[in-house]
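tool_call predict_complex ligand=3,4-dihydroxyphenylalanine
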Amino acid sequence: MKEIDELNEVVKEADEELHKVNDLNDLQQKKAIYLGKKGPIARIMAGMKSLTDEAKRELGMASNKVKDLLENMFEKKKSDLEEAIVNQKLVNETIDVTLPGVQFPAGGIHPLYQTVMELEDLYIGMGYKVAEGPEIETDEYCFEKLNLPKGHPARDMQDTFYINPELLLRSQTSPVQVRTMLESKGEPIKIICPGKVYRRDSDDATHSHQFMQCEGLVLGSDITMADLKGALLEMARKMFDKDREIRLRPSFFPFTEPSVEVDVSCGMCGGKGCPTCKGTGWIEILGAGMVNDNVLRMSGYDPEKIQGYAFGIGVERIAMLKHRIDDIRNFYTNDIRFLNQFKEEK
Ligand code: DAH
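tool_result ok
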């Protein structure tokens, strides 16, 4: 029967077409054409009316078979295409777990803060507590109660940023001594106070309008200058190296009597004299002294019963000597090349 031959021909043709199909849309369209109402099978069946009943039956069966066959072929092609898509996706999304990771730049602790942490560690080890105070301070705490009344010539030692006649940016951490004494109500004290201070200085290699100090205050019943010297020698040896010596030179601060300036032996030349220590063998690192009786009295302490020492360390100075930094501005300009040198390797 020629119709059956035609049906077989349709199957052959569909098979060839299917080989060319490579996406699901295309497949859907082809399927609609081959199995649809206007497709080749429908057309062949339309000419069936003129056939005998026997032939009609045979053709009917054959066409159903062909339809099933085509359905299966399209179905098979569909799952082949879907599988290929998944495989392609797997290939595209493969991760090479052996590739080196991406390094994220991480921050480090600022060299000044590292120095503060070392100072804190070492003084906490000697029984001190860490105290804090505000950077916006009153004239009363920053000067008056430190034995620096208004008009006192020593006020000129620190050119201060005033906010108004009573408020200022603290020019030293010494007001924290006053605050701690007022809070401690005559009891013994052993504190350090690291923090920022401000002065109306023009910035250069050794001056900065903002810098850091670490104040110390120890009050008790039998505290002498020998204790002060011991605490400072310990600090110099822990912060620099164990062979360092210190020396105390007479000086003046309104809040201490006697007052001293403290030098550490030069680490560059071992005390022989070199350009760093300007030939003297010594480098100044801080001011200190025995707390002035007036200061004690103004904050509620009886100098007959309790006395002690105070000191004020320049934190930048320590850090600069320790790391041989020759310009204080390096601490404040945030040049990453400078800061990276102080990153601890993990
Ligand atoms: N406050 C002083 C300054 O800024 C440093 C200082 C000297 C602090 C002697 C003290 C001290 O506590 O006893 O120059």
